[in-house]
Amino acid sequence: MDTKAFKRSLQQSNNYHRKGFGHETEVMGTMNTEYQSSLIQKIRENNYQWQEGDVTIKLAEAFGFCWGVERAVAMAYETRQHFPTEKIWITNEIIHNPSVNQRLLEMNVGFIEVVNGNKDFSIVEAGDVVILPAFGASVTEMQLLNDKGCTIVDTTCPWVSKVWNSVEKHKKKDYTSIIHGKYRHEETVATSSFAGTYLVVLNLKEAQYVCDYILNGGNKEEFLEKFKNAHSEGFDPDKDLIRLGIANQTTMLKSETEQIGKLFETTMLKKYGPTELNEHFMSFNTICDATQERQDAMLNLVEEKVDLMVVIGGFNSSNTTHLQEISIEKGIDSYHIDSDKRILPGNTIEHKPLEKDIETKGNWLPDGKIIVGVTSGASTPDKVVEAVIERIFEEKKASILV
Ligand code: SF4
Q1: Bridge-partner residues for 111, per DSSP?
Q2: CB of 124 sitting under 6 A from ligand 1
Q3: Is residue 402 predicted with pLDDT exceeding 70?
Q4: pLDDT score at 97
Q5: Is it the case that residue 394 has pLDDT exceeding 80?
Q6: What burial class does residue 226 get, using C-beta atoms within 10 Å of its C-beta: 0-12 exposed, 13-18 middle, 19+ buried?
Q7: Are domains 14-27+67-156 and 159-287 of this chain identical in fold?
Q8: Partner of 180 for a Cys bridge, out of 6, 137, 248, 337, CB 3.0 to 4.6 A?
Q9: Which CATH class is domain 159-287?
Q10: 3-class DSSP state for residue 331?
Q11: How far is the CA of 237 from the centre of ligand 1 (A)?
Q12: For the domain 46-65+290-401, what is the CATH code?
């Protein structure tokens, strides 16, 4: 399919909306009440620090709701206002935050169910309104909804669309897109649907494997097995790794995306020499500003003296997990939680260690005066961060009284 032509024709349709509906002021008022926090505002104004009893909180200087998420949530609220009686669906969580998704459910916005690993769109009828989330939707989904005669409200973040434009450029010039991302993540699923030939690499280790194959050859069956589900149909490593373009899931670890880009560039340089490099390699900077700022702020926070770190965000949120990775790499005790409800009475916490299921830990707040670093992913409202900080204060006070 000519995905570019399809996107262009969709954008011209009267049933497609990618801007709000003129209710911004009202919606922003509601969102401020529901998601903003006066405590967090005070902490920001107090140089990102706050002390209460034996606990000092140090906040990262950039955290929480990013511009793209705020825009997507505002558009979803506006959609409800603009279509008060229509059935409204969303193809996925609007963002990876349970409280925001719960709020949409309360507003009678339905989520498309996943049945046997596939989304069940049979429930959607002509005339229904369907919201596409901040991390986008695959071109197949867009086409299906358009064919059904739905009204589409596209909240895809412009930073994500920028990556789609990059892979369209690769495709036009017959380059294979190497996408740094998680092949199951909705954003990467959407991005690869716009790509021609593509391969998704998760990390530097996988990128190194591919580069070794490019330089030295290898076992094709092993290659295809290793990357099964992570490449375009009919992908052949012997033919499809000759001209490469780099793209990324916007929320990956910035330093790793840069390293992977450099690794492929050096590999193609070694293989084809400097005069031929441009014929074999292209790269655009598509790491979003918000991801960069939050990771940079976390890199600063882990340099400060903290006794432990609390990282707040959905467990399936890629950008939150990367913030957690930065802390773990620095050897700091770090707890990834998705809400204040994970902080249980009796100095106990339910948290998700990297690559593991949720665990329960007792005595997580040490005795005496403590400094707790706090950050949150791009999908986390300030109200959730406030609730977590309040629970830390309460638990610490309670543990002293015991
Ligand atoms: S993290 Fe970046 S790409 Fe994702 S929604 Fe926010 S601004 Fe957009």
Answers
A1: 90
A2: no
A3: no
A4: 83
A5: yes
A6: middle
A7: no
A8: 248
A9: alpha beta
A10: coil
A11: 32
A12: 3.40.1010.20
Whole-number Å distance between alpha carbons of 366 and 348: 11
Supply the DSSP string of 332-390, one letter for each residue.
Answer: --EEEESSGGGEETTTEEEE--TTS--EEEES-S-SSSEEEEEEE-TT--HHHHHHHHH
CATH level 3 topology of 14-27+67-156 = Rossmann fold (3.40.50)
Query: What is the position in ligand 1's atom list of the atom closest to the CA of 251?
Result: 1
Cα-to-chain-centroid distance, residue 334: 20
- 6: Cβ below 6 Å to ligand 1? no
User: For all residues of the chain together, what is the average pLDDT?
Assistant: 95
Q: Distance from the CA of 158 to the center of ligand 1, in angstroms? A: 8
User: Domain boundaries in the chain?
Assistant: 14-27+67-156, 46-65+290-401, 159-287
* Ligand 1 atom nearest to CA at 288: 2
| 81: confidence class by pLDDT, cuts 50, 70, 90 | very high
Ligand 1 pocket check: which of 93, 94, 159, 182 to mutate, most ligand atoms within 8 Å of Cβ? 159
Residues of the chain with pLDDT > 90, as a percent, come to 88
Percent of the chain with pLDDT over 70: 100
Digit-coded pLDDT (tens) for 164-196: 999 999 999 999 999 999 999 999 999 999 999
Residue type at 389 in one-letter notation: I
Minimum-distance ligand 1 atom for the alpha carbon of 378? 1
* Entry pTM: 0.88
Is the Cβ atom of 293 under 6 angstroms away from ligand 1?
Answer: no
User: Does residue 160's CB lie within 6 angstroms of at least one atom of ligand 1?
Assistant: yes
